[in-house]
Amino acid sequence: MKIIEIKKILIASFKNLALILLIFGSSPFQGQAQTLELGALVGGSNYQGDLASSEFNVLKQQINFGVGGFLRYNFNDQLSLRLQILSTDLVGEDSLSSFPRIQQRNLRFFSPLLDASLRVEWHPLATIFDSESIVSPYIALGGSFFTFNPQAEYEGVTYELQPLRTEGQGIPGYNVERYELYNFSALLGGGVKFKLNEDFTIGLEVVAHYTFTDYLDDVSNIYAEYDDLIVETGVIAANLAYQADDFFGTTQGSPIRGTVRGNPNNNDLFLMGGITISYSIINPDRLGGSRRAMGCPTF
After folding, report:
1. I want to staple 75 with a disulfide (CB 3.0 to 4.6 A). Which of 25, 68, 106, 291 is the partner?
2. Quick check: 268 and 213 in contact, CB under 8 A?
3. Residue 259 lies in a domain
C-alpha cells in the first residue's frame, strides 16, 4: 500500500477519533474532573504474518518481552485519550512449524520494533450506568506509527534483510516496490482497569495492531530468480532468499520463477498484551476530596 493511501486512512481514523471525543466528552460530563496519568506497560508481543503458524506451540515460542510508557488523559469516567511508546522484538521461524511445507521453506527473521500510538479508551459500564467503579473494562481504538528492521542469521552472521531486496525489489523484470522500514497501524483491543485508590490504577489489556505492510518479516510475494539476485545484490541475498536447499542439504539452486514465497493478500499484524500500572500526576480529587464514592454499577 502506498504512503499516500496510508495517510488518507490515518487522517480518516483520527477524524473518527475526534468525533468520538466530541460526542462523549461533551456537555453531559463536563462537570466531572479531568485527570492525567503517567503509566507503564510490561508484557509480551506476538507477530502474525507469513512466517507465523496458527499452531499454539508456535505462537507460544514467538512471544517476546515488550515494555512501554504512556500518558492517559481522562476526560471523565467514560472516556480517555492515551499516548503510548512501546518497544519490543518480533520473531518468526519456519522450523518451529509442524507442517512439512512450511518447514521446508526454512525462512526466519527477527525485528526490533518501536511503536508510538494514540488511542481512545471507552469504558462502557461507566457510560451505561453513569457510575465510577473499582473495576472498569474498556475498549481501545486508535492508530500508531512504528519502525522495524527485519534481520536474519545466516552461517553465524546477522544480516539486515531490507537492503538485500530478497524478493527482487527494484530489480528490472520484477514488479515489486522496495519497502520502507517504517509504517502505520490501526489498533483495536481492550482491557480492564482496577482502581486501587484515587491515585493508583493497575490493569490487564491486549491490543492488536493491524499494519499497512506485509514486510514485517521481509516475506510477501514470490521468489526472485537466484541468478538475478546474485547479479543485482550478491550471493548472500540469493542464499537468504531461498533456503529450501539448505533444509534438504542439497546444492544451492533456484526456485521456478513465480513460485509463491508468501501471501501478498494479507498484511502482517502484531499484538501486545500485558499489565499496566499508572499514577495520577494531576488529580483534582486530591484537593477537595473524592468527587463521588466508588462502587459497583447500580441498575
Report:
1. 25
2. yes
3. yes
Q: Is residue 292 included in any domain, yes or no? A: no
Cβ–Cβ under 8 Å, residues 275 and 43:
yes
Contacts of 5 (CB under 8 A, 6+ apart): none
* DSSP of 53-64: -S-HHHHHHT-E
- Tens digits of residue pLDDT in 151-191: 999 999 999 999 999 999 999 888 889 999 999 999 999 99
* CATH value at residue 80: 2.40.160
Q: How far apart are CA 211 and CA 266, in angstroms?
A: 10
> How far apart, in Å, do the first and last CA atoms of the chain sit?
48
Q: Which residue has the cell 499494519?
A: 211
The beta-strand segments (E) located in the chain are 35-48, 64-74, 79-93, 108-122, 135-148, 151-154, 157-160, 182-195, 200-211, 269-282
Average pLDDT for 126-139: 84
CB atoms within 10 A of CB 97: 19
Secondary structure string (H, E, C) spanning 196-229? CCCCEEEEEEEEEEEECCCCCCCCCCECCCHHHH
Question: Is residue 288 assigned to a domain?
Answer: no
